[in-house]
Amino acid sequence: YCVTGQLEPPANPLICPQFCLRFNDLDNIGISGRHFSGFIMIGLQVFNSPQKYVYFKEECVDYNLRWLTKELEINVDDITLIEDVWCGGGNLGPSIEMFVKGLEVGNMVFTQYKILDFVKGEFEPLKHQVIDVGIGLERIPWLINGTPTSYLEAFPGAVKYLQSKLEVTLESEVISKFAPFCCLLNLDECKDVNKAWADIAKECGVENREILQTAIQPTRDLYIIADHSRTMLIAIYDGALPSAVGGGANLRNIVRRMFSILHKNGWWEKLGGMDGLMELFEWHKRDLEKLYGAFDEYKSFRKIIEMEYQRWCTTDLESQQKVQALLKKKKGVLVVDDWIVAMKSYGLSPDKISEISKLPVPDNLYTKLAELEDQRVKMLPTELYETADFQETIELFYDNGDLREFNSEIITVLEKVDEKCKPTGIHNIVILKESAFYPIGGGQDNDTGKMKIDGITYDVTYVEKVGKCILHHLDTDLKNWNDLKGKSVTAYIDDQRRNQLRSHHTATHIIHQAAHQVLGPHIWQNGAKKTVEEAHLDITHFASITREEENEIEKLANEMVRKNLKINKFVLSKEEAEKKYGFSLYQGGVVAGNTVRIVDIAGFDT
Q1: Which of 155, 499, 534, 536 is most open to solvent, judged by the fewest CB atoms within 10 Å of its CB?
Q2: How far apart are CA 143 and CA 140, in angstroms?
């Protein structure tokens, strides 16, 4: 929205440090010294519009070089800038990567062009030119302090705890010699990983790569556990849960990898089992409290980890037989795709497959697995109508939810396009100065009704919001559409439909809060649908709901309905709303704009 100019950014320039999850580098974690499954990205965005120039390429490069040389006191001769091209979201522009002594610390992206035809290389300048700088926070203290790996800086308390419990030595002659060469083992860049290991072994004075890998394996495994456990902590506290699909599948992969490493090395008992693992999470909290403050109590957190551990421990005999059959079919050789089939279809961990097949886990298994998940991510729907140049529609339904008839003025009439953005020749989409029609969104169907223009009444069949404008789709082509700008209209909303949709919307809020109170704070909305006929709510939970829990949720929800609680509605700035209510406000999706409309059911649900 900010890139297209449909909305003003919350600040300009905007600095936004954000914890990010990344699962396509799992095979590099613990070896490279710089890869993480969860890390903090310092984001800096600048939005230049035709009306307001803030700064662009020259100033951005100058500011970042000043930060490196003046603030971090890095010798300018140690800095290398590499120009490249970045594209994404239908836009592209030049980028400049910042390296210090070979370590990439950040990237400056200058989004200048909109892609018209990627294949033909056709593009046009954007009206709003944007800077997007990303800097990996964990790399900065590593760079300044000069420790062998960034893991020592990222997890100081957690690493010391693991080291004391597992009795792993993080400093040795072999590890010290290996550290400068670990960057050569990035699987994204290394064409022959076995040769790379052999070359590094020679440089370290070790007989062969097998001896070198064995020597550093305990250290690597310790760092993997430290990394994966912190990622699990942040993700679960943020509302995510391990599962078999989507992003939850990535979480399940890393928690099972963590369990496998602990058992493979005989560390589960040394750590103290589940109690010791919970203590590790507490050490992560202590490390992170310096950045985020104290963590709230999360009563179901241990239950979630325990449930995942039980599932991991329970290996179905039939699944083992399937792996053995696959191994026989493949004549004793399993390629990466076969491992993925065994993991996804049979529910087995890589270490269990390795135990059954007597084969080593492929070096690039987790990279391939993450690529597969990325391919499953749904593309955002194409925005069919450009509304940035029109004035924002005044939304009457927020100030008066009982308004069913209103007068307004036509701003413009748009031509309908098909799903491939091709014009249809039909002009039946009306944008009004103000509207009481509620558009489709948040899983709720749109209002319908009537619209009278020049004495002729049309059916309003579909209402949507595109950018800052509400689009009203009529049932008839407006032949004189070019003469309608500025015309007065009278519109009527289907009262029965609106009331039913509104009741279903409130009902989903009540059910959600009841489930939250009965099942625990991990309950988040994962989807909702509110139609005239029915409504349903999808929630996140780590186990099937029991009949007793279902009855308790129903009982609590009905108690709230019988109390006839007052529904309060008000608008807060995003900053104030997020401080007061947290990001649970965005369970139905992040809201565009600088303000958030709050609906509070008398303190029961917000």
Answers
A1: 534
A2: 5
Residue 378 has pLDDT above 60, yes or no: no
Amino acid at 395: E
Task: Examine the domain organization and report whether 456 and 521 are in the same domain.
Answer: no
How far apart are alpha carbons 379 and 89 in whole angstroms? 10
- Nearest by Cα to 509 from 477, 537, 474: 537
Token pair of 121 as six digits: 């290389």
pLDDT digits (tens, 9 = 90+) for 26-35: 889 998 888 9
Please tell me whether residue 168 adopts helix, strand or coil conformation.
Answer: coil
d(CA 241, CA 244): 10
Q: Tokens 């954007």 label which residue?
A: 126
Q: Report pLDDT digits (tens) over 559-570.
A: 999 998 888 888
The backbone region for 271, taken as left when phi is positive above 0, alpha when psi lies in -120 to 50, beta otherwise, is alpha
User: Which single residue is written with the structure tokens 């990996």?
Assistant: 136
pTM, two decimal places: 0.76
CB 45 within 8 A of CB 130: yes
Same domain, 121 and 258: no
What values do phi and psi take at 215, rounded to 5? -65, -40
Q: Do residue 83 and residue 116 come from a single domain?
A: yes
Q: How many residues does the chain have?
A: 606
Furthest C-alpha separation in the chain: 91
Q: Which two tokens stand for residue 442?
A: 């948040």
- Amino acid identity of residue 57, one-letter, is K
Instruction: Tell me, yes or no, whether 420 lies in a domain.
Output: yes
CATH number, domain containing residue 425 = 2.40.30.130
Q: In sequence order, what are the residues at sequence separation of 6 or more whose Cβ sits closer than 8 angstroms to the Cβ of residue 1? A: 7, 467, 592, 593
By the 8 A CB rule, do 465 and 503 touch?
no
- Quote the DSSP letter at residue 568: E
Residue ending a domain, choose from 377, 402, 425 = 377
> Parallel, antiparallel, or unpaired for β 405-417 and 423-432?
antiparallel
Q: Which domain holds residue 291?
A: 151-377
Is the distance from CB of 466 to CB of 385 less than 8 angstroms? yes
